[in-house]
């Protein structure tokens, strides 16, 4: 046993040694990879007004590792939101600026591209303000962490100034200098837009872009607004860049809209020929237009309920249809709209506001009540809920997309089927 042990020990030691070398080599390789990755990480600190929207914008760029809201370039003032927003500090030149610390991988996005985004994302010709946000905390400022960034920032400032001057803008007010210290903002400011999904994205950009900017083609694209100059239309104002509230409005509301009032998307630079009163610095802003002129508008994200109530006021006005849709009113028996709809050719009755298909003529029958009657709705198009109004126990029927009141459902239909008793004034008809 002893001799056998002695004979295999060198082999065991050799294998152990090779394994240890391999492990050591692997650790060294991982360390080299980590070091190489770190060598390509850089940080810029950017102030372009309120930091909420800027943080979200930069987080969305490919190559950005992290974006943190915070304060920089101040002294004699506590670096906190409470302190910098005090009235006495509003025009204090030593006040801290709201900034975003952007950490990025230079292998994926260049310093130059980040700085171009910075200039294009706000109006650098405004001093100590961006739009309605006024004060030194909102100053345009670019703080660098190495000499190459400082050189690039000054070169791009000069290049952008030429573009701005050609477009009729004044002198750039952006402060460019090395970073002294960055102070992270309070936790409730971090990822603020993600935590508060029903707001708006401030858009203070000039619309002027660098000659090689990906946005240039879009900014120069001509839009035909002639279709908006006649009749009613809905215009959704979106940002030139990334706007999460715009995306949310599309996903939650406008992409499901099928109504017969045209809905279009525009940016602030694409409103030629239209008479707009509501400022264009908030996106989304939803404009309701009559013959190309704003009737009213709503700044910021709108829920489906808010949008369709506004659309109801716009399209239906002070009519019986509006009262039925939003005040749970009821059509008169054998009303004019009922007479028009009781004997239509084959087709589908749709929501007067959203255009969503609700009832098919295949399921229509003459109940003799003076209201449109159906045995069933289009699948997944309505919501039924208890209704105890007027001292009765009934089941209300509302449109799933717009939420408008449609009528009630009873259990006295033909052959034991339900009877959906529906108000004709809140419907439109589409022939098959």
UniProtKB/TrEMBL annotation:
The active site is at residue 50. HAMAP family: MsrA. Has an important function as a repair enzyme for proteins that have been inactivated by oxidation. Catalyzes the reversible oxidation-reduction of methionine sulfoxide in proteins to methionine. GO terms for molecular function: peptide-methionine (R)-S-oxide reductase activity; peptide-methionine (S)-S-oxide reductase activity. The keyword Oxidoreductase applies. Belongs to the MsrA Met sulfoxide reductase family. Keywords: Multifunctional enzyme, Oxidoreductase, Signal. This is Peptide methionine sulfoxide reductase MsrA. The lineage of its organism: Bacteria, Pseudomonadati, Pseudomonadota, Gammaproteobacteria, Lysobacterales. Gene3D superfamilies: Glutaredoxin (3.40.30.10), Peptide methionine sulfoxide reductase (2.170.150.20), Peptide methionine sulphoxide reductase MsrA (3.30.1060.10). It comes from Marinicella pacifica.
């Amino acid at each position: 046993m002893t001799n056998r042990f002695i004979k295999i020990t060198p082999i065991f030691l050799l294998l152990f040694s090779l394994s240890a070398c391999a492990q050591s080599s692997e650790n060294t390789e991982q360390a080299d990879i980590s070091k190489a990755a770190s060598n390509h990480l850089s940080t810029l600190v950017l102030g372009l007004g309120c930091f909420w929207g800027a943080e979200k914008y930069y987080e969305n760029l490919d190559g950005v590792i992290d974006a943190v809201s915070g304060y920089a370039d101040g002294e004699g003032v506590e670096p906190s939101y409470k302190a910098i927003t005090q009235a006495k500090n509003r025009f204090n030149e030593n006040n801290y600026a709201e900034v975003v610390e952007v950490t990025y991988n230079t292998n994926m996005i260049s310093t130059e591209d980040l700085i171009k985004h910075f200039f294009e994302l706000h109006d650098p010709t405004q001093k100590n303000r961006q739009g309605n946000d006024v004060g030194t905390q909102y100053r345009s400022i670019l703080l660098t962490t190495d000499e190459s960034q400082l050189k690039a920032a000054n070169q791009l400032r000069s290049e952008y100034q030429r573009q701005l001057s050609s477009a009729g803008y004044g002198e750039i007010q952006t402060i460019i200098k090395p970073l002294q210290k960055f102070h992270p903002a309070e936790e409730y400011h971090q990822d603020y837009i993600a935590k508060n999904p029903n707001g708006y994205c401030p858009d203070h950009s000039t619309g002027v872009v660098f000659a090689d900017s990906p946005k240039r083609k879009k900014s120069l694209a001509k839009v035909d607004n002639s279709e908006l100059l006649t009749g009613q239309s809905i215009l959704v104002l979106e940002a030139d860049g990334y706007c999460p509230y715009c995306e949310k409005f599309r996903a939650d509301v406008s992409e499901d809209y099928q109504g017969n009032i045209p809905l279009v998307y525009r940016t602030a630079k694409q409103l030629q020929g239209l008479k707009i009163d509501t400022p264009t610095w908030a996106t989304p802003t939803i404009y309701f237009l009559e013959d190309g002129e704003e009737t009213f508008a709503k700044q910021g994200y709108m829920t489906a309920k808010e949008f369709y109530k506004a659309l109801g006021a716009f399209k239906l006005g002070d009519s019986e249809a509006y009262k039925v849709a939003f005040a749970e009113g009821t059509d008169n028996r054998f009303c004019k709209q009922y007479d028009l709809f009781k004997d239509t050719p084959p087709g589908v009755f749709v929501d007067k506001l959203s255009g969503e298909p609700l009832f098919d003529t295949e399921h229509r029958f003459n109940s003799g009540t003076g209201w449109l009657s159906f045995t069933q709705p289009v699948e997944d198009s309505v919501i039924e809920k208890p209704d105890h109004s007027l001292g009765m126990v009934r089941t209300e029927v509302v449109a799933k997309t717009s939420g408008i009141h449609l009528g009630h459902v009873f259990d006295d239909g033909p052959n034991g089927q339900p009877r959906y008793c529906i108000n004709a004034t809140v419907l439109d008809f589409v022939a098959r």
